Amino acid sequence: MSACPAEGEWKTISKKKGIKKRRENVRNIPHREAEVLSVAEGERIQQKIKEAVEELRSSEFWTDCLETIQRVANTYCTAPLAPPLSPFLGGEGPESLEYKKDNIDHCQNTLDLVCYGIGNFASSVTSRYQLALLFLLQETLQISQDGCLLFDPLFTEWEKRFLKDCGMVVLKENEEGKRPINKPTLFYMIHCGKALYNNLLWKNWSPQKLAQTILIGNSFKGMEERLPARVLQRVYKYINHILAITEEAAFPSSSRYMDVFNDTSIHQFPRRKLDAKPTEFWEGAAEPTYQECEDLEIIQKGMEWFSVS
Question: Which domain holds residue 200?
Fold first, then answer.
């Protein structure tokens, strides 16, 4: 069966173009939450997710991504372990894996994976492929299911239940990206609002924490090129401060997945560069407020209008 979307399905708005619509979409959440998917419809969506995973797995795009992801992740890896394949993907051990083992250096499970803003994967083709890549990251980097945490204020009850059935953790509260870490953590934030990245940096504003942070999301270089310098310095100052320290590797260009992974990079913050900054660079880090920001691009805590459980 072909994994390609049916004709017309690609008309779904891309996540980057749709960010500004997120606040408006919150008003429609109660109606979507009230909808109950039939068993057949739920199975159809799950099948589409599996097809997206297999399509990505066999794509040149994923092969090219692997080289960069592998190099970055090996910084945190030690002894080989058999990867814990998600039950959703139909495997329980290394014998069930369908990728080429010689393309991956298996490493000890040391990473957590936190995903923000993936969107409504039950209805959006773009979100579905982004979720498929998350499954492949989890598989490749040997991240346990309970080490994979997700949140999107727009998740429906069906989507939350599906993720929980996959063994993943659906966060109950809108953290606005303000999650402190105490171990190496990969943040998966495709096409999220700039405030979310800024908040994440602020909450972990120290050499110790940022050195353990890997971020897959919108290119910081792209933000610097597109935003007026005064806006970057005044509104998103933690992104602005970290630019000179960041090592960024762009995702490969792909016409097939242009709307899905465009402007996406893997960001790291090398300890040697962090330690080179003077002490005062890290002191007095004030929490961002965005009071003067007219287009915040994120749904703030308390705006969800529904219970995330």
Answer: 14-282
Query: Which region, left, alpha or beta, applies to residue 121 given φ > 0 means left and ψ of -120 to 50 means alpha?
Result: alpha
Of 126, 88, 87, 81, which is closest to residue 104 (Cα–Cα)?
A: 81
Quick check: is 302 in a domain? no
* Cβ partners under 8 Å of residue 62, min gap 6: 56, 133, 136
CB-neighbour burial class of residue 215 (10 A; exposed 0-12, middle 13-18, buried 19+): buried
**Number of separate domains in the chain:** 1
157: amino acid identity, one letter: E
Please tell me the distance from the alpha carbon of residue 94 to that of residue 170, in angstroms, as a whole number. 26
Closest CA to 170 of 92, 118, 110: 118
pLDDT the model gives residue 303:
59
pLDDT the model gives residue 36: 74
Q: Give me the CATH number covering residue 232.
A: 3.40.50
- Kindly report the pTM of this predicted structure: 0.81
Question: Which residue type, as a one-letter code, is found at position 229?
Answer: A
DSSP per residue over 63-93, as a string?
Answer: HHHHHHHHHHHGGG--S-------GGGT-SS
SS3 303: coil
What is the rounded distance in angstroms from the CA atom of residue 252 to the CA atom of residue 259? 13
Give the tens place of pLDDT for each residue, 86-138.
666 665 443 333 433 344 444 455 789 999 999 999 999 999 999 999 999 99
CA distance 38 to 58: 31
